[in-house]
Amino acid sequence: MRIGELAQRGGTTTRALRYYESLGLITARRTANGQREYDEDDLRLVAEIRSLADIGFALEDTRPFVECLRDGHTSGDACPASVAVYRRKLAELDECIARLATARDRVRTQLEQAEQRRRPCAR
To answer: Which of 52, 76, 110, 114 could form a disulfide with 57 if both were Cys (CB 3.0 to 4.6 A apart)?
Structure first.
């Protein structure tokens, strides 16, 4: 399939596919006239990349998943390197959630103090 069809079927753009190719995440074969050509395996790689990117993974974080698929595994997360990326990403998310919870508590405290200052004094 050509790049336009891969983009359409993969839910992305031709520009993104060229970028993935520049990063080495996908590899196009070239026809005699120089056009990029892809197959179903490439579609599977693009689907894996998009799926991970959609949940917040950086493109470089998708590399172990892509390599795992290229190595013939049925799932991109069947390899230890992919599991390590999951663990790292989960730790990052947990840290972010903790920071947000702390910020929320501080804002709540500030709001409560502001509301108490606005109450009229009883005489």
So the answer is: 52
Q: Are 61 and 76 in contact (CB under 8 A)?
A: no
- Length reported for the chain: 123
**Sequence-ordered list of residues with C-beta below 8 angstroms from that of 28, at least 6 positions apart, any chain:** 3, 21, 36, 37, 38, 42
User: pTM for the full model?
Assistant: 0.83
Between the CA of residue 62 and those of 28, 31, 35, 90, 96, what are the distances in Å? Answer: 18, 27, 26, 14, 20
| Complete domains list, the chain, with CATH | 3-118 (1.10.1660.10)
User: What value does the CA radius of gyration of the chain take, rounded to a whole number of Å?
Assistant: 23
pLDDT by 10s per residue, the chain, length 123 = 999 999 999 999 999 999 999 999 999 999 999 999 999 999 999 999 999 999 999 999 999 999 999 999 999 999 999 999 999 999 999 999 999 999 999 999 999 999 998 876 655
Question: How many C-beta neighbours within 10 Å does residue 9 have?
Answer: 15
CA distance 11 to 9: 6
